[in-house]
Amino acid sequence: MEASNWMYVISAYVITWVILLGYLAYTHTALRRSRAEYDRVTGRAPGEGDAV
Amino acid sequence: MTTVAPTLEAPRAGRWTAFGVVSIALLVATQAFAFVSSPPDENMGQLEKILYVHVPAAWVMFVCFAIVLVYSLLFLWKGREEDDLVAAAAAEAGAVFNGLTLILGMIWGKPAWGVWWVWDARLTSTLVLFLVFVGYLALRAFVEDPQRRGQWSAAVGILGALNVPIVWMSVTWWRTLHQMPSSMQSMAKIYWLGMFANFGAMLLVMAYFIRRRYEAAAVARAAEHAAQAAALGGLD
After folding, report:
1. Exposed/middle/buried for B70, CB within 10 Å: 0-12, 13-18, 19+?
2. Do B226 and A38 touch (CB under 8 A)?
3. Considering only CB atoms, which chain B residues are within 8 Å of A6?
4. How far apart (Å, rounded) are the C-alpha atoms in residues B114 and B151?
5. What is the C-alpha end-to-end distance of chain A, expressed in Å?
6. Full-model pTM
7. Chain A residues bordering chain B (beta-carbon distance below 8 Å)
């Protein structure tokens, strides 16, 4: 019983981080694409004027 | 009647990358703290460790939908496109935390209740909330006109957010399988500490997600405005 409970606990934490990091990667990809499109349309050099 | 002013400017990244790194690091630290410091529960054993992610995810989901409510109302009132984009960003982050809450609840439910899912009032109302916000996001994907998209999604967002009190009160109104909310009197301090620490860290991660999604949407809209202006000869 105890050992099988650990399996559920570990699964819960692994899934939490897969979802959070997956969404984090998605947000970064979406932002990078938007900025690239904005730079293309406005003729700016990539990253020009952006802070850290 | 709202109007969407085509004046949105691309926001700058600022120091949000550092904020994101700190938020994620803090969440790792609070999870490690709760995981290591909390003793096995008398009834649940080690399963109580799942609650340090399940419960904060649910609370953060509520916060996201409260933000949707506020910014949807602001959009309908003032017609600022920025408010619509913040509401959409919060709705998407809320749907992520909502999905996470459901999955973690199922993982907890199997060993604790013996079933992955049951049509209990809390589970069902949380699933309905999830489906409403998936519908909200689908609606936004299908409506091209920014003004209509903003108005329609604000209406859905407000209706969805009004479901939050039903989810919260469901365990009190309908006594089914999901347990009643615990109080600070009924739980040892160490459990509360772990739960609130994780909630605080997850709240920061949520803020980072919303900011990044808002930023991506605002930059995309600014690119559309710039392209329209260029097509009309307004851009040198």
Report:
1. middle
2. yes
3. 46
4. 44
5. 49
6. 0.89
7. 1-2, 4-6, 8-9, 11-13, 15-16, 19-20, 23-24, 27-28, 30-31, 33-35, 37-38, 40-42, 49-52
Lookup result for tokens 């602001």: B74
Residue with tokens 């609650």: B51
B154-173 pLDDT tens trace = 999 999 999 999 998 888 88
Q: What is the pLDDT of residues B31-46, one digit of tens each?
A: 999 988 888 877 778 8
Q: Is B235 on the interface with A (CB under 8 A)?
A: yes
DSSP code string of B68-136: HHHHHHHHHHH--HHHHHHHHHHHHHHHHHHHHHHHHHHHHHHHHHS-S----HHHHHHHHHHHHHHHH
Residues of chain B neighbouring A51 (CB-CB closer than 8 A): 12-15
DSSP B115-132: -S----HHHHHHHHHHHH
Whether B46 contacts chain A with CB within 8 A: yes
Helix B51-78 to helix B81-113 angle (10° resolution) is 160
pLDDT tens, B84-115? 999 999 999 999 999 999 999 999 999 988 99
* Tokens matching residue B76: 């309908």
**A12, A19, A34 ranked by CB distance to B107: nearest:** A12
